[in-house]
Design goal:
By secondary structure, the protein is mainly alpha-helical. The protein contains 11 helices and 2 strands. The chain has a two-stranded antiparallel ribbon.
Length: about 325
């Protein structure tokens, strides 16, 4: 009667068995695992993609000729430039103001904490389109803006409409809205830095501002960048809201053109294509910026997609064997 030690599990080797009785490894048949569900799902996805591509190519409603006529037209390119300007101004000014608000929230002053918290609460509560309409009609509330002594005489004043203008109102609205979200992003990044870093910097006698600029923010950037990149991409698409102010950005110009010629689908496709291109460029830039700031945590970062492609295209040659080499 065989003992338990000599009994082998299914497909295994008996524990304590005689090595002379083991099968030859070359004669063992290796059967790969069958992933039928995975192959079925892949086939279904490929079929759906093929159907979608076929519809894009054969459905006459897309009107690819109209798309090609307008996608690089001067009007559309100028509108894209306006969209990029609004995004750039709102991003830079919004994150500068948001950084100030974030450190106000982190300060020990109850006044600064209360003001920063109230600002974030109000501007995150009001929809962007409401803020834009409000700033667009600022002259109805303040006909003139001036400089003078608080609660005293005004030394210099100017008409609100001539000072701000339509583009200025859009930038102010986008900046103030973006600053509320940027403040929380920066605050979360600073809180992710170990408190020992602050204590070590203070023990070395490093001034507070230099601590923030040279020690805290570089480490916080690893936590800030992913969310900040997502927020900037959202802002790029959110600039389409300024169409209510009749600013000639991308979506507004597309509306004007298809309202004139009735080509709704191809003109919307033009806007879609440009938003996809701009978002892709920002995504690539975000990837490389994140890679740069990750050097402190990962000294050997993985190769970039471009480096992988270069290695794939220019593969090193296999070492050749010498005539006497029998390996």
């Amino acid at each position: 009667m065989p003992s338990l030690m000599d009994t082998a599990p299914p497909g295994g080797t008996a524990v304590g068995a005689d090595p002379k009785n083991l099968p030859d490894p070359a004669s063992v048949q290796i059967v790969p695992a069958r992933h039928y569900a995975r192959w079925a799902a892949a086939v279904a996805v490929v079929v759906l993609l093929a159907q979608f591509a076929h519809g894009l190519a054969t459905n006459p409603v897309w009107e690819w000729g109209v798309f090609g006529e307008y996608v690089l037209s001067e009007t559309i390119v100028d509108a894209v430039w306006v969209t990029l300007q609004l995004t750039a101004y709102a991003t830079v000014l919004g994150f500068l103001l948001g950084t100030v608000l974030a450190f106000m929230r982190l300060s020990r002053s109850p006044v600064l904490q209360s003001v920063a918290w109230t600002y974030t609460w109000i501007f995150r509560s009001i929809p962007m389109i409401v803020q834009l309409v409000f700033w667009f009609n600022l002259s109805a509330l303040y006909e003139e803006l001036g400089i003078g002594i608080p609660f005293g005489p005004v030394f210099w004043s100017v008409d609100s409409n001539s000072l701000i203008g339509t583009i200025g109102a859009a930038i102010i609205g986008l900046t103030l809205h973006q600053a509320a979200y940027a403040a929380e992003i920066v605050r979360g990044g600073v809180l992710s830095v170990d408190h020992g870093q602050f204590e070590a910097a203070a023990a070395l006698g490093i001034p507070r501002l230099r601590q923030i600029r040279r020690i805290v923010l570089p480490q916080a950037m690893r936590a800030i960048l992913p969310t900040a990149g997502n927020e900037i991409i959202g802002l790029l698409k959110g600039t389409s809201v300024v169409y209510v102010m009749a600013i000639g950005e991308l979506f507004y110009q597309v509306q004007v053109i298809y309202g004139r010629n009735g080509r709704l689908i191809p003109l919307l496709l033009v806007a879609t294509a440009w938003y996809v291109v701009l978002t892709s460029v920002l995504s690539v830039a975000q990837y490389y910026v994140e890679r740069r700031y990750a050097r402190g945590a990962n000294r050997t970062p993985p190769p970039t997609p471009l480096q992988r492609l270069r290695r794939f295209l220019v593969a090193p040659p296999l070492p050749s064997k010498s005539p006497g080499d029998t390996r």
